[in-house]
Amino acid sequence: MSASVASEALASALVNPREDKKPTPTITNIQALRGFASLIVFLGHAILLRGGMGFDHLMPFIGPYASAAVDVFFVISGFIIATVAMKAGADPRSSRGTIAWNFAVKRFSRIFPVYWVVLALTIALGSYVAYSPPFVERKPMWELIFLTTHINSNIMAAWSLAFEVYFYAVVTIALLISPKRVLWVLSGWSVISTVLVLYNYYTGEKWGNVFQLTFLVFEFMFGMVIAVLIDRKVYRYATSCAIFGLMGLLLGIEVMQMKGWPEHVHMWVHAVYVGIPSAFLVYGIVALEIDKGWRVAPFWTRVGDASYSLYIWHQFLLYTMLKFCERIGLINVVPGPIMLLFWLAVCWVVGFWSYRRIEIPAQTVINGWLTRRRPKMA
Predict the structure, then answer these.
(1) How far is Cα 296 from Cα 242, in angstroms, rounded to an integer?
(2) Nearest-CA neighbor of 96 among 25, 171, 191?
(3) Averaged over 339-353, what is the pLDDT?
(4) What is the pLDDT of residue 212?
(5) Within 13 A of 293's CA, how many CA atoms are on the CB side?
(6) Enclosing H/E stretch for 214
(7) How far is Cα 303 from Cα 306, in angstroms, rounded to an integer?
(8) Which residues of 286-309 are buried (b: 16+ CB within 10 A; e: fewer)?
(9) Phi, psi of 263 (to 5 degrees)
């Protein structure tokens, strides 16, 4: 039995489905959590960028927090994508080919336009600015362009996008196979992935030698379980789950710290000590909004809307501004905290500008051109 199916069965045994509630069209708490997680990554990378900026005392602690925020992203992605896939698969007006195509196009328009803009800038400025340390492997450019590798020397934060694109591809294939039974297909993928990941771990071999067969794929599965629970209107113990998830997440981060993050922390530590608490937290805040009407402040929702642009732009901007300030000697004149706050402000402004001027227009144009609806085929 896969991790997702087992978790679903366990959760169903512990809670009673509520039939009198209907999910809201938009779950704002998810966007808020994504916004908060993106700021943790954003601040973490800024503090770790360079020593002597006045925040050296935070460096040993901020890394695991920024890393754990990405685990939260993966759980959120599993929840959102599974929810979208279930909704798309239930559409009786379109063929399965159209359903899979539309899903893939919308995911493409979400990920690639902003990423390609930033990637092009790193290529253009690559002879002037080093966007990664020398020990980071240089992969062929086509792998960076299409995000087929998690080792990205141009945009290091984009390592997580390779996992996202892989998961989108899996869901696209699942929709193509059977839109109405997409969860069954994804459960099959979960079983196969679980077996291969555990095989690789316990034997020390690398079956297939692909980065997708790591413990991080479990975090997508956790998100899928949450999608099933919410779809079945399981909302009980939401407050307890949210509190347990938050406390467990903080404890998991401390465990990573004690184990010697990042050199001595295996991916299974992320999946168990951070991924599982993240799943409880995500389920809790979603269920609280649907069942109790509890919502996070709108500010965090707006940050969540722009979180992807903030995530993709911030490292490019930080490395570029650092290099510029070092070259003109400004780094030795302006106090470190003030300099860092200015850099953060620039990243913030560019991130929100990118969301409004690149992300939204690109999605509108691409989705308008490429998505289609066809009559259901026999």
Answers:
(1) 13
(2) 171
(3) 96
(4) 78
(5) 0
(6) none
(7) 5
(8) bbbbbbeeebbeeebbbbbbbbbb
(9) -65, -35
Q: Report the distance separating Cα 84 and Cα 186, nearest Å.
A: 13
Model pLDDT for residues 297-321, shown as the tens digit of each residue: 899 999 999 999 999 999 999 999 9
* 101: Cα separation from own chain's centroid: 22
Cα–Cα dist 186/347, whole Å: 37
R_g over Cα of the chain: 21
* Residue % of the chain over a pLDDT of 70: 90
In whole angstroms, give the CA distance from residue 293 to residue 121. 43
DSSP conformation letters of 126-181: TTT---S-TTS----HHHHHTT--S--SS-GGGHHHHHHHHHHHHHHHHHHH-GGG
Cβ-based neighbour number of residue 285 at 10 Å: 25
Alpha carbon distance 271, 222 (integer Å): 10
Integer Cα distance of 321 and 312 in angstroms:
15
* DSSP symbol at 328: T
Tracing tokens 């007006």 back to the chain, one arrives at 93
Q: How many angstroms separate the Cα of 273 from the Cα of each of 141, 151, 260, 270?
A: 34, 24, 14, 6
- Whether residue 372 contacts residue 114, with contact meaning beta carbons closer than 8 Å, is answered with no
Cβ-contact 15, 284 below 8 angstroms:
no
Residue 239: alpha-carbon gap to chain centroid: 24
Helix/strand/coil for 80:
helix
- Residues 6 or more apart whose CB falls under 8 angstroms from that of 199 comprise 205, 207
**Cα(275)–Cα(264) distance, rounded to whole angstroms?**
18
Over residues 193-215, the pLDDT tens digits come to 999 999 888 887 766 556 778 89
Q: Give the residue among 216, 293, 228, 212 at the shortest CA–CA distance from 81.
A: 228
Chain mean pLDDT for the chain: 89
- Residue 378, SS3? coil
- Write out pLDDT tens, residues 259-305: 888 877 888 999 999 999 999 999 999 999 999 999 998 999 999 99
One-letter amino acid identity for 198? Answer: L
- pLDDT (tens digit, 9 = 90+) per residue, 79-108? 999 999 999 998 888 899 999 999 999 999
Q: Residue 207: its pLDDT value, please?
A: 63
How many Å from the N-terminal Cα to the C-terminal Cα in the chain?
Answer: 33
